[in-house]
Amino acid sequence: AGWTPAQSAVLAEFEKPFPDEVSYSGFKLSSSQGITVTSAGFGYRSGGSKLVLSNAWIVDAASREVVWEMAEARDEWREKRITEETYQVELPEGTYEVYYSTLPHRREHKWNMDFNFSFWGLGTDRVLERLVEEEDVDDVDDVYRRFFLRVEGDGATMSAQEVRDNHDRMAADAIVAMRMLGDHEYVEQGFELERNMKIHIYALGEGREDGVYDYGWIINADTGERVWRFTYDDSYYGGGAEKNRVVDSSFEAPAGRYVAVYGTDDSHSYDRWNSAPPYDPTFWGMTIRAEDPDQSRYARRFDYKSKDLENVVVEMDKVGDDGYVRKGFTLKKPMKLRVYALGEGKDGQMYDYGWIVDADTRQRVWQMEYRDTEHAGGGEKNRMIDDVIEFDKGSYVAYYATDGSHSYPHWNTAPPMNRERWGLTITGVEGFNRSNVADYDEEVSGDYLVHLSEMGDDESRRETFTLDKETTVLIYALGEGVDGRMYDYGWIEDAKTGRVVWEMTYRKTRHGGGASKNRMFNDTIVLGPGTYTVFYETDGSHSFHDWNADRPFEPENWGISVRPVDKS
Hints:
43 strands; mainly beta
């Protein structure tokens, strides 16, 4: 069947717009029919690329599918003046939304994503200036004021408020609805499924092949495991700017507690688009609903805070330039903890990052490695890790360090979406009980025989200890060494004979983090009963108070410590 004209009535109309506006309204059709769309605007096509200064499209309100788009309908848009066109569109009975945008709409060849549009041999800004001359108007605003869109047919009109009300009803029926999100947003919503069910995710965000910038994910609230994430590869073009992406998919979710998270960067959002908006702008964010509407009654929302004070074990956030923070904690039983960290990383290397060591052995049990991180929104060097780690019973020390740039709140590129969490946070997960966690203070709880730390330039210190039986001791020492020779180092002598029983040589050490000359010894030796003297000496540069290269992982331990391993 061909196109069937409907009785003439204005169903939607947009007149005299200004640049960079997005407007919408709607209409209802009680029967299938042909509608008429008339528009005045400017566009130009060159091969597979085109520029349109105003675009319009119609969306099926129920399915959210685009049923017509002006930019695609107008195939031969080559005039150098504002032109008027009429389109005939056949639509079935239903409710529809009409969108009108005056943000420049560009579509390029897939192989030429960096296409720089030129018309009259000029860039886009100069095209607008030339249009001012061609149309004989005062300024660019006057060019846009000549644009319009009118939809005519046999139906009932819907105001913008009625469209918003409809969207609100759709959101109210969803398990999770995070919509109309603006710049610098980071939102979390807990939801619980009483039984296994298939859930449907509809999400709009910003992304390119090199990463996503406005996006969401879902984690298991009890285990911290990430069960779904918005990725570029799993999304598709969402209309308008090439970077507008849509996920419209479903997956089987077991019964349990979940957290939906969505974050945005500092530009291109519902607050203010910096290029053409997507087809479904008010759903910028993430909506989750039961695939089978009858299953909705088995789902409910709950309040969730990733930094619930009852669950926080370590909180080191908002860390600035040249920062270095640490926090000890003791676990009275084995448990799983969620480790969440934001930091700066590039080309496989981290510059702002965290790590955790066993307080007794000084062995590193976790470190924020670039390969384990993902993009955290904003600049590509913003990296994030969100993982669940199994810890044994014992004491631990968490550390976080930054270099001299790009940290909270002084960013030298776009900040991450969850900027206030720049640093390291450790929280309890499934079955967490606060009574099983205690603070740990190395100075108080270290059980040191000797602890010579924070050694500065040109320092020489010594301490003596006595053993009444043969004892295994752990020696942990940091010092400076280059080309096989140590410059800041320690040793142990038998106090009675003066014999050296242990010495920190270059061959015994390994890299201690930071500059390559930071050397570390971390191992045990056996000492017989007797009295011993521990020495530590530094030269005139590169020490705790004045590093001339990158500091080591644990700068406060520049020096030497000795502690018993077996106290029985």
